[in-house]
Amino acid sequence: MSSYDVIIVGGGHAGSEAALASAKLGARTVLITMSLDHIAAMSCNPAIGGTAKGHLVKEIDALGGAMAKVIDHTAIQFRVLNKRRGPAIWSSRAQADMYAYSQFMKALIEQQANLSLIQDSVDELLVDGSSQVYGVKTKVFGEIRSHATVLTTGTFLSGLIHIGETKIPSGRASEQPSLALAKFLKTTKLRLGRLKTGTPPRLDGRTIHFDQLEKQHSDQNIIPFSFSHSHLPATKLIPMYLSHTVSSTHNIIRDNLNKSSLYSGQIDALGPRYCPSIEDKIVKFPSRERHQIFLEPVGLNTHEVYPNGISTSLPLNVQKAMINSIPGLEKAHIRKPGYAIEYDFLDPIQLKASLETQYLKHLFLAGQINGTTGYEEAAAQGLMAGINAARLCQGSKPLVLPRSQAYIGVLIDDLVTKGTQEPYRMFTSRAEHRLHLREDNADLRLTPLGRAIGLVTDKDYELFLARKTLLAQGHELINRLRLGDLNWDLAPDILRDKDNSGTQLKIILQRKGVSITDLAKQNQALAELPSDILQRLAIEIRYHPYLEREKKATSSHIDLDKITIPTDFNYALVGGLSKEIIEKLTRHQPENLGQASRISAITPASIGQLRIYLKHKKSVRAPYQHQGYDSNQQPTVSK
Q1: Could you tell me the CA-to-CA distances from 348 to 353, 354, 423 in Å, in that order?
Q2: Neighbour tally for 394: CB within 10 Å
Q3: What share of the chain has pLDDT > 70, as a percent?
């Protein structure tokens, strides 16, 4: 019988990050997947990043994960979204050569020490009498034992594809679902639910009239996803194209709604409201005359095109009519039909903040099995689950990121305290500390922590220290420079009545319309700083007054997070709590008062009562110290 420290089940984006993190931290790890040819496959849109998702990718990279490096090497289009708005919500997004992306990630995994690969399906978990998972039972390799197990099954648990009235048991198109494992999980204490997502048809680019469509090029002056890259390693960037639906498209869809699996009653599961199918768009937004479609090439060595914006579960013949009604797609040929897919997920409020389940010890969950959607959300969870599975094997405390430190912390905290009734995705609006949690400073927030736990390499850490030194030099320079040190007369509308040659440059930079790049052209010392460092300096200086206010507001939340609640605490003992609140707290089993305060319908008054009771009874365990990074001191990590 084979034996490992950590077993990772599933080779998608969550499984890839989990396996790499676990192995890098010294745990003997095995990745078990149903297809070694589909490691980190892009089963939906061929892109990484986007609003808030780009933040997650930057944080994964800062901690020592792989996603950012892989997309930088395989990107074929790169843009920053929300550039017309504040820097806190600027979000990087890159189109990938989806086949190159998978191959690059697979190569990293195959080269990683301490990491073995097995192609097989997992049918059962091995569970002892104390509800501790000690391995898995596979179809071919039999029983494989471990100290910790991570499930990253994506949409494969009882996966069922819908194309009109056609139903196909499948985890992804043309791939078998995981039926035995889903059946086994239903015999445990874990609560399962059902969700739905979808994808559009894939088109043959040779049959598209690109000359009739609007072309969208990559940005200029690209800042890569990975902090390790000074420039984008990808050798070729190509454009996307824009089209849109028209009235005849909408009529075709309306006339055939009864044939859509979503509207015919075949699917009861909820889908993602923020990424609706084209049927949903027509029904829920009837006044909209058109819906935008992004035609995204999926690779450099294929003609296949992904029409982003028209996810559908209509029958194939209706999909053809719909596609051919769209400008530029009149002769477009469908290579692969669009479809909806239903799958099982596990209620994430059954998880600890470490992503270990409350009911089955040493079992971790990451990715769509937790009710999330998106490659980036999956990868972020996979990274944390892999880290904590390895740390469990080593007898170390779990790594938990607070909401004030990372979007990853917001993501996981939302899942374990609020749960989800629909596929969850990250948005900047979910992060109350988003002025601090920016893409540009993810390394300052998280790289020292990644280094402390052993995930950030020597090379990457040296690069981080060099950037940190440049930023410190830049701040010192700007604090020292005055208006009189410039060789350029600022425009009158930027200057104020009280300005003189002694006005600090940082005061000038906080004003709207002032470009640090223009100022750098008038000062040799500033001009010698790299452009990405200049941009970061400008953002930090402009946000400084607001960040100081945000820090004060954050302190009370951090204090609550430090007050732990004993396992299996009896909330009925606390006087004044309503029956509803007692039931909610008992069901969620929060690990600390901070988590309890973020559960829906839990009132500040009830948190106050619980806090007084815990303090009075002296039943609080030693305060849990987040393994976080304070910019004023190096992190400490319990060994």
Answers
A1: 10, 12, 11
A2: 14
A3: 94
